[in-house]
Amino acid sequence: MKEFILMFRMDITNQEAQPTKEQMETYMQQWMEWINEIADNDQLADGGNHFSRQGRVLKPKNEVVDTPLIENNVSVAGYIIVLADNLENATKIAKKCPILNGENTSVEIRETATPG
User: Is the pLDDT of residue 116 over 80?
Assistant: First the structure.
């Protein structure tokens, strides 16, 4: 099995785009059901986390941007690492991600590169 990173993107800047407490409880229940399904299928690798809304981007010529990289009000909010035979199977796992029930959200799927 190969490792694939699922990166979760969402609007981290607009307060109106943030879920209410009740919505967050529902989302967390859906999230845990999804994660448990992946783990039960022995496809959840070690690693993964949510990111804070604070961050910094370093660019050439000592340019420092004191926010995470945000494009079209969307930034990477977290990631997990899953195990799958190929990109198609990793995509099947990602399609069930509850973050896709939101607006202006996405999941990017990338295979990890092996050195050499």
Answer: no
